[in-house]
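Service request form, structural biology core

Requester: graduate student, group of Dr. S.
Request type: structure prediction, single chain
Budget code: on file
Notes: please return the result as structure tokens.

Sequence provided:
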Amino acid sequence: MDYTMEQYQASAQAVRERLAGFTPSVAMVLGSGLGYLGDEVEHPVAIDYRDIPHFKASTAPGHKGRLVFGMLEGQRVAVMQGRMHHYEGYSYEEVSYAVRVLRLLGCKTLVVTNAAGCVNTAWKAGDLMLITDQIKMFSQSPLRGENLPEFGVRFPDASHLYTVRLQELAREIAREQGIPLREGVYFYCYGPQYETPAEIRAARLLGGDAVGMSTAPEVIVAGHCGMEVLGLTLLSNMAAGILDQPLSEQEVLDAAAAAREKFSGLVRACLRKM
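Core staff response, request fulfilled:
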């Protein structure tokens, strides 16, 4: 469906009425098993997605499905504890709807996280990766349909969807904290089935370092409406065919739990220095 500007504004107004004058500046989208950062927000105001007009429900395991507003490391944040995915039956416009609403609420920066399969065979599960670019060429764009000029131009540039300044900030903080930080390209596949070994080999040949079922649509929309973007990936497992073992969602959640301290420390320090 094509959402109208009136629908985006209605969603933003419904949220605004709950915030008592609070204006967020940094939006955060937290991926599978990573939503605990939303529980660390100070003076939180939590709003379930189902209570916001035109929002969709988040049904993926490990996703609470709510927005949490408040303070985190001195930043006024809006934290999405759970995101919508195309594999849940949603269109790409529905998947990325919240990003535009958060932009209307005042967010100028998007911090996006995910748990993804590791495609790069020189790396290992449990590593963190700074996203420097993405590949999403085999499915529709979330910008398909009528363009809303209030958000951006009809044909937006995608040369730097992930903001160079924020990438350098993440590198600096990782060095300070002694965290090995990989850098690479996020390859989007829409799932819900995990990729085949042949698809992983193709992703590697095309330049992908990590593969996952989220992130790319939201980042396209964030870039379209002028937001700066920082993307961080937890490489939760080796992608299909690299190891002789099946993939499972429990493996992803377990990896997120194991990486909690270093991942949280990196994200919180990036917020502190933005």
